[in-house]
């Protein structure tokens, strides 16, 4: 917006705003890379920059965008949600789509793991009068972040499978049953073991990263092609500029030679003609 104002002032006063135009083009390239903007020329020197049909820069006026810290939505000053492209759009899609899916899978795994362990722990006894209860607690929706042990002392673990008298203190049968859960189908809705569920999640993360990398490479190729097209239409070709420079240099030298010849001719005519017989 500031450059639009300066360019307009320079053009009005009859000065050439070429340097300012170059600065604005660089900023537009940066905005396009970060946001995926749309640029419309207004008149000879002015531009309007918009995102999702909403103006970010309109002449000498600029609007400030903000981000909702809860939803990660990009907000226009009018309160409307705009969908960015470019780097910010990719980051936003990761935060809104990919990352919640990853967290959801991890939270589901932790929730199923806690349910299986708590069920088995409740089937045992820590002493004749104390059956096992929950071993872990979680908060729904953030299981992976909030998982915590209920027990504070090792002796409270319901390691035995029988509480009848005489109490077989810590026969370890229920503790072994809890350890054996690692080989039982208690994850992914009862279709996988805990280890299998974790191993299945790793290739999915790799596939997600590979897809993002392929998309980034494809976009890089599109950007390179667009830049080549733009440079071909109004960019600077160094070879062409060198040819023109040599051409202008030779023209200057030829012009200088003409002036030298004229000067020598005038010198002969003025200083030497008519001297014979004086």
Architecture overview:
The chain is an alpha+beta fold. The chain is 55% helix and 12% strand. It has seven helices and eleven strands. The strands form four sheets. It has a four-stranded antiparallel beta sheet. It has a three-stranded antiparallel beta sheet with strand order 5-6-7, with no helix packed on it. Strand 8 and strand 9 form a beta hairpin. The radius of gyration is 39 Å and the shape is elongated. The model has no long low-confidence stretch (mean pLDDT 88).
Can you give keywords for this protein?
278 residues, alpha+beta, 4-stranded antiparallel beta sheet, single chain, 3-stranded antiparallel beta sheet
Give the topology, please.
Elements: H1 2-12, H2 18-35, E1 38-42, E2 46-51, E3 54-58, E4 61-62, E5 66-67, E6 74-75, E7 81-82, H3 86-122, E8 125-127, E9 130-131, E10 136-137, H4 143-146, E11 148-149, H5 173-179, H6 194-234, H7 238-272
Antiparallel strand pairs: 1-2, 2-3, 3-4, 5-6, 6-7, 8-9, 10-11
Helix pairs in contact: 1-2, 2-3, 3-5, 3-6
Short description:
The protein has helices at residues 2-12, 18-35, 86-122, 143-146, 173-179, 194-234, 238-272; strands at 38-42, 46-51, 54-58, 61-62, 66-67, 74-75, 81-82, 125-127, 130-131, 136-137, 148-149. It is α+β, with helices and mostly antiparallel strands and 278 residues long.
């Amino acid at each position: 917006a500031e450059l639009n104002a300066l360019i307009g002032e320079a053009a009005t006063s009859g000065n050439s705003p070429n340097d300012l135009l170059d600065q604005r083009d660089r900023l537009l390239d940066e905005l396009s890379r970060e946001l995926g903007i749309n640029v419309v020329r207004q008149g000879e020197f002015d531009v309007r920059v918009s995102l999702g049909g909403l103006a970010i820069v309109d002449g000498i006026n600029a609007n400030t965008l903000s981000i909702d810290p809860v939803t990660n939505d990009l907000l226009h000053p009018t309160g409307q949600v705009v969908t960015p492209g470019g780097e910010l759009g990719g980051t936003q899609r990761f935060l809104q789509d990919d990352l919640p899916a990853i967290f959801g899978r991890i939270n589901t795994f932790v929730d199923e793991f806690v349910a299986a362990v708590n069920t088995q722990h409740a089937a045992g006894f820590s002493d004749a009068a104390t059956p096992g209860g929950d071993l872990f607690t979680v908060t729904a929706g953030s299981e992976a972040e909030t998982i915590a042990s209920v027990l504070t002392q090792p002796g409270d673990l319901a390691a035995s499978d029988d509480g009848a008298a005489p109490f077989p203190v810590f026969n370890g049968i229920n503790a072994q049953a809890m350890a054996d859960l690692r080989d039982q189908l208690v994850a992914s809705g009862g279709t996988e073991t805990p280890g299998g569920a974790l191993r299945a999640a790793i290739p999915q993360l790799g596939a997600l990263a590979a897809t993002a990398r392929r998309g980034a490479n494809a976009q890089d190729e599109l950007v390179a092609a667009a830049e080549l097209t733009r440079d071909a239409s109004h960019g600077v070709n160094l070879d062409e500029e060198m040819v023109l420079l040599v051409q202008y240099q030779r023209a200057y030298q030829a012009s200088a030679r003409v002036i030298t010849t004229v000067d020598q001719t005038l010198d002969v005519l003025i200083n030497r003609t008519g001297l014979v017989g004086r």
